[in-house]
Amino acid sequence: MRRAISKLKPLWHGLVLMGFVLGVLGVLDAVPVFVAAVPPLVLITLIGLGVVLGSVHPRAEEHEPCAMAAPVRGRWAALNTPGQQLPSHGTRFLGQYCAIDILRPTTADTPAKVRKAWRGSRPEEYLSFDAPVHAMAPGVVTRTWSGSRDHRARNTWQGLLYMMSIEGVFRSVAGQRALLGNHVIVRHDDGTAAVYAHLRRGSLSVQAGQRVGVGGQLGEVGNTGNTSEPHLHVHLMDRADPHTAAGLKMTWENITRSGEIEPSLQEIAKEPAENAVRSMPRNGEIFEA
């Protein structure tokens, strides 16, 4: 039942968007006559239905983390990681229960997380940008998207506010491509599937139907979709369709952890929650693959 409801996610999100738009029109006193004629209780019920059903996501049975190879090489830092808590991104939407974001450790030349400027930093200014992304396990590519542009970082106060309000709402409603940006989905030989998101436009080196081996290059890190700065987002699912998939726990076998914390992420480097995947790096922790 959860999968059937989750498959209609665009419909539920459409109802929520309708409520958001009507709210804005109401503030502007510009609600269309045909909408004003509908009883308020009916509109409230439809919007409430969208909120409730839109929060229904598939869940996997309790299991040991699936062993994978890391999707990158070299030194990286973890953020919004299952090594800190589950759900790692605060949601199970699109199978993200055990998702992880990773980015290159900062240097003196890395743009600040938040700065005073009119525009955000260019993606090319970040070390993570255009780093190779590798397959975590062997399988077949089931879906790719490469039509999203690499946007500037949301590292100004106005940029962050825009991302967390207007942009965030519309990307959530627009769905998979708007959130993940350029991405690749690989269905593994054991039936699980992995999502690699926020890839650089023009960097994809695979296409749907193509078989890839563990470590095979899929593309490069970009800044597309719902992202504040260039980084790689990956997560594991129990099937290749994110709308009907349940997120799965995973662990990377080929990483070395020193316990070192990325300075720019020091504020979020806390002790892991009880349900954290202890074999994965926690928030802010630097690892090498």
Automatic annotation (TrEMBL):
Q: Which stretches are transmembrane?
A: 12-28, 34-53
Task: Kindly give the Pfam families that the UniProt entry links to this protein.
Answer: Peptidase_M23 (PF01551)
Which intervals hold domain M23ase beta-sheet core? 174-240
Q: Which SUPFAM superfamilies does the record associate with it?
A: Duplicated hybrid motif (SSF51261)
Protein source organism = Nesterenkonia lutea
What keywords does the record list, in alphabetical order? Answer: Membrane, Transmembrane, Transmembrane helix
Q: Report the protein name in the record.
A: M23ase beta-sheet core domain-containing protein
